[in-house]
């Protein structure tokens, strides 16, 4: 099983400490709001928050209502229901982590216990059940609660259930995830051998799902052939992603930190250093390409209104307009990195067609028949969804624009042809764009002829407008100006006044956008989501660049060319990030005057394209090329000093003496490959603290990355298997202990330092944490334990058979990492994990007769105080190591 089939125990500590327990009370009472469903009554004052001044969220936004009415997002008859549900709090949902060892037990508890005991608690007109499995999610692994989190907290009769949710969340058996957010990975149709790229992955709930699928079918100790590369541009969010996915214990994961629109392809054909065909052959690939790509892009997020009601206040049409370009660029990069025959899912938690159908249409337009929008109407039939829209309109500064033709010239750098349903306008755009280019040149000359970094063609008049529009009064003025401009354009004959109300001029997309899926809240009491499933049917065409150029500014045109070149795999690879151009950043792309920096930050876009970043990108490019010659030698040093500053280097661990001592101490079978699979993040082999195991698939990508000059900025990878141990007495001959998360992978191959305990002794170990050899119920077990070498060891549960002699493991084996001291055995499992494991054993095997605490009082289990203290320190040390790791080796600090 390894990676993924069981989760470790101690390793979950830092995960827990680094995320809120979402089922606990809200630590920020200011954010709390009443749970009455509408919460727009300023006079209501919930009793639940004594002494707190409650400020209700506004749940009105006339602009929002007008926008979606015009877009016909739902029929007129449904409008009231749609709006009413948007104002109600989102019912909680969660997923059972199928990688957790006790996931079946958790599922049984929900099906057999809570579903029945909570029957009486169904409490609103939308639902007849208090909790229910989501019908479209496989194997009853995803659950919908007919309560919001606030209701769970307030209701006494739900207390036991609430406690259950808190504990299972804390130990990592369940993950809270919005129901609709679970959908995209299901449509990706991932198989265990697939190479999957999750382009915008943080905080990682979908990455977790992808890893679960990758690890689904493997036996203990075997790793799947596939892998997931999870990427996010935001450093802080990348760290969340790392902590989230750590619970998966996967050796098949790489976390990277790139702007997705420039995700490197690690093309060997671009390398400055010659690589022989033989070397390329050994690697099995000369460019990074994926079987599956998840493109869950940054978006305006209005599909999450039910759980993030502050969006009511912030929402404006410019948010979607501002993100469209970035979304297209990310999606096109995804298509470029996709293998022919591969599938890509494009998704957003926005309802806005500009961020959805318009982006999908642009992908199809640019890929010119090489990408198909799949009809997946027969997949997940129980998931209620609507067809995509074929027509929509653009709202810009108070104007409705039904066609690109009526976009005022000075807005044409912002409002793009690709935002509109029809691509007929694209031909006319060439002329119009010339105008925009003239504007840009004029602007360039205004600022001394230097080109503006990555800016969309934006005339100075517009910049002035946008500056002024901070002031609300000026927004009105600017909109009036725009109207006047449209009228002038129209009367000049360069545009027809196709504004709202003129239905005869409605544009309809030529693409089969009805195959897209939109989930709206009132269909199944959920949030809203948009999903499109695309398949690459052949390599992108040579003239893709020409075609796309009509819709995109000069900057992006260059980028399209580079992307295309990469797609002609093997023949015309022109390399990675197009460093000769500045990236179109979220911030720049979102240049609508009403979308301020705070809003962008709220979209999770901070750090994108900062000057610092851009400088680094240039530097990275240079150093990356140089780095190639020094494969895994001084490269680590180079990396920390130049390339990917602030990120620990990735190095294969090749210290044979250490590897041999580990193998021999634990009796790790020769059939388990260590060589070539061990990685560290420290270039000083003598001070390596943690050793990570990587699958063959990850190994191959690392090799390619080394060969290509370390294009990938890797923030985390693999599965921690060994940690340097700080034995106080120095008696253990092995310097490295096993880590809990790596144990499931190694377990089937370990033949030394491993014992099988009876159920009673296993329970006692979990309960008392340290037991003297003489105090074990099974004396033979105590004797065997005393004969182990001092240091790290493994105890497996022999399930009451008293089988100290025989150690047999299979997928269901329950095992813990322990420490053999001079007189006793101590577990290296956190208290919470120990407690939870005890409870699971009770649920499976029944409670132990007699209270162990009483036995303790009677002095049955006396522990050598001195050694106990020493072992306590060791345990503490293990915890410290876990925590420091998050800071030193896995946290991106750039
Ligand atoms: C909708 S969230 C992704 C949610 C995630 N897929 C999940 O299921 O947990 C969008 C993410 O895109 C990231 N992002 C924004 N701009 C990006 C860019 N240019 N490249 C990569 N990631 C980006 C944000 O930091 C944010 O974490």
From TrEMBL:
Biased composition (Basic residues) is annotated at 1-16
Q: Which locations, inside or outside the cell, does it occupy?
A: Nucleus
Q: Biological process GO annotation list?
A: tRNA methylation
Which keywords belong to this entry?
Answer: Methyltransferase, Nucleus, RNA-binding, S-adenosyl-L-methionine, Transferase, tRNA processing, tRNA-binding
Q: Where does S-adenosyl-L-methionine bind?
A: 200-206, 232, 296
| Record-linked InterPro entries | MeTrfase_RsmB-F_NOP2_cat, MeTrfase_RsmB-F_NOP2_dom, Pre-PUA_NSUN2, PUA_NSUN2, RCMT, RCMT_NCL1, RsmB/NOL1/NOP2-like_CS, SAM-dependent_MTases_sf
The organism's superkingdom is given as Eukaryota
SAM-dependent MTase RsmB/NOP-type domain mapped to chain residues: 82-537
Task: Please indicate if the UniProt record lists Methyltransferase as a keyword.
Answer: yes
One Pfam family this sequence matches:
Pre-PUA_NSUN2
What coarse category fits the chief subcellular location reported for this protein?
A: nucleus
**Where are the compositionally biased (Basic and acidic residues) regions?**
608-629, 876-888
Region entry Disordered: which residue ranges? 1-56, 447-504, 566-640, 873-894
Q: Where is the composition biased (Low complexity)?
A: 37-51
Name the protein family.
Belongs to the class I-like SAM-binding methyltransferase superfamily. RsmB/NOP family.
Name of the protein in its database record = tRNA (Cytosine(34)-C(5))-methyltransferase
Taxonomic source organism: Asparagus officinalis
């Amino acid at each position: 099983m390894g990676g993924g089939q069981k989760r470790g125990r101690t390793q979950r500590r830092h995960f827990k400490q680094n995320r809120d327990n979402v089922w606990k009370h809200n630590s920020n009472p200011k954010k709390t709001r009443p749970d009455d469903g509408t919460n727009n009554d300023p006079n209501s004052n919930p009793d639940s928050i004594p002494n707190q001044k409650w400020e209700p969220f506004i749940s009105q936004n006339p602009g929002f209502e007008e926008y979606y009415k015009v877009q016909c997002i739902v029929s007129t008859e449904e409008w009231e229901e749609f709006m009413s549900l948007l104002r109600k709090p989102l019912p909680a949902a969660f997923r059972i982590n199928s990688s957790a060892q006790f996931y079946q037990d958790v599922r049984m508890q929900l099906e057999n216990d809570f579903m029945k005991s909570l029957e009486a608690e169904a409490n609103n007109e939308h639902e007849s059940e208090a909790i229910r499995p989501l019908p479209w999610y496989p194997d009853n692994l995803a659950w919908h609660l007919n309560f919001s989190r606030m209701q769970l907290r307030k209701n006494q009769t739900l207390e036991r259930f609430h406690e259950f949710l808190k504990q299972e969340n804390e130990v990592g058996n369940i993950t809270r995830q919005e129901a609709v957010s679970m959908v995209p990975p299901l449509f990706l149709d991932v198989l265990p051998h697939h190479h999957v790229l999750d382009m915008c992955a943080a905080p990682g709930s979908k990455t977790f799902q992808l890893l679960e699928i990758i690890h689904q079918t493997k036996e203990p100790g075997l790793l799947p052939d596939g892998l997931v590369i999870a990427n996010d541009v935001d450093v802080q969010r990348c760290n969340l992603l790392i902590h989230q996915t750590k619970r998966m214990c996967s050796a098949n994961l790489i976390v990277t930190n790139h702007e997705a629109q420039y995700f490197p392809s690690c093309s060997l054909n671009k390398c400055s250093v010659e690589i022989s065909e033989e070397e390329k052959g050994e690697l099995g690939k000369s460019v990074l390409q994926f079987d599956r790509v998840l493109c869950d892009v940054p978006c305006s997020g209005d599909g999450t209104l039910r759980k993030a009601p502050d969006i009511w206040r912030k929402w404006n049409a410019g948010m979607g307009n501002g993100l469209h370009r970035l979304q297209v660029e990310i999606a096109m990069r995804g298509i470029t990195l996709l293998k022919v025959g591969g599938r890509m899912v494009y998704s957003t938690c926005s309802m806005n067609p500009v961020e959805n159908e318009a982006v999908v249409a642009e992908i199809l337009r640019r890929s010119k028949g090489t990408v198909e929008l799949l009809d997946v109407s027969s997949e997940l039939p129980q998931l209620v969804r609507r067809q995509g829209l074929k027509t929509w309109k653009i709202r810009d500064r108070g104007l409705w624009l039904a066609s690109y033709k009526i976009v005022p010239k000075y807005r044409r750098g912002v409002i793009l042809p690709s935002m509109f349903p029809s691509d007929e306008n694209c031909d006319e755009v060439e002329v119009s764009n010339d105008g925009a280019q003239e504007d840009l040149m004029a602007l360039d000359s205004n600022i001394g002829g230097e080109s503006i970094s990555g800016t969309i063609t934006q005339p100075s008049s517009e910049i002035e407008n946008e500056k002024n529009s901070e002031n609300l009064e000026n927004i009105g003025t600017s909109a009036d100006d725009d109207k006047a401009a449209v009228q002038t354009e129209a009367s000049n004959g360069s545009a027809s006044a196709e504004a709202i109300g003129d239905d005869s001029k409605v544009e309809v997309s030529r693409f089969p956008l009805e195959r897209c899926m939109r989930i709206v809240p009132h269909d199944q009491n959920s949030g809203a989501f948009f999903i499109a499933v695309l398949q690459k049917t052949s390599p992108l065409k040579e003239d893709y660049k020409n075609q796309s150029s009509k819709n995109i500014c000069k900057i992006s045109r260059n980028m399209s060319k580079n992307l295309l070149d990469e797609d002609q795999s093997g023949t015309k690879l022109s390399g990675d990030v197009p460093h000769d151009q500045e990236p179109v950043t979220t911030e720049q792309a979102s240049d609508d005057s009403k979308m301020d920096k705070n809003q962008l930050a709220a979209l999770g876009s901070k750090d994108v394209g900062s000057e610092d970043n851009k400088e680094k990108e240039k530097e990275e490019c240079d150093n990356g090329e140089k780095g190639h010659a020094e494969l895994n030698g001084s490269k680590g040093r180079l990396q920390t000093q130049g390339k990917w500053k602030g990120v620990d280097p990735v190095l294969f661990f090749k210290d044979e003496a250490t590897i041999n001592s580990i193998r021999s101490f634990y009796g790790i079978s020769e059939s388990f490959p260590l060589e070539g699979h061990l990685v560290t993040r420290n270039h000083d082999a003598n001070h390596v603290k943690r050793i990570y195991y990587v699958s063959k698939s990850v190994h191959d990508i690392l090799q390619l990355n080394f060969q290509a000059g370390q294009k990938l900025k890797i923030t985390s990878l693999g599965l921690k298997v060994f940690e340097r141990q700080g034995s106080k007495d120095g008696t253990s001959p092995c310097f490295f202990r096993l880590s809990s998360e790596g144990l499931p992978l190694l377990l089937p191959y370990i033949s030394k330092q491993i014992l099988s305990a009876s159920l009673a002794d296993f329970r006692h170990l979990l309960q008392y944490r340290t037991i003297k050899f003489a105090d074990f119920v099974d004396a033979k077990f105590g004797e065997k334990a005393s004969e182990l070498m001092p240091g790290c060891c493994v105890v497996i549960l022999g399930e009451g058979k008293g089988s100290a002699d025989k150690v047999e493991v299979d997928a269901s084996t329950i095992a813990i990492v322990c420490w053999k001291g001079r007189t006793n055995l101590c577990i290296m499992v956190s208290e919470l994990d120990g407690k939870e494991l005890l409870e699971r054993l009770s649920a499976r095997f029944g409670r132990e007769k007699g209270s162990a605490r009483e036995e303790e009082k009677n002095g049955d289990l006396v522990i050598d105080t001195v050694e106990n203290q020493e072992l306590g320190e060791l345990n503490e040390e293990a915890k410290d190591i876990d925590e420091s790791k998050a800071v030193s080796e896995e946290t991106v600090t750039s």
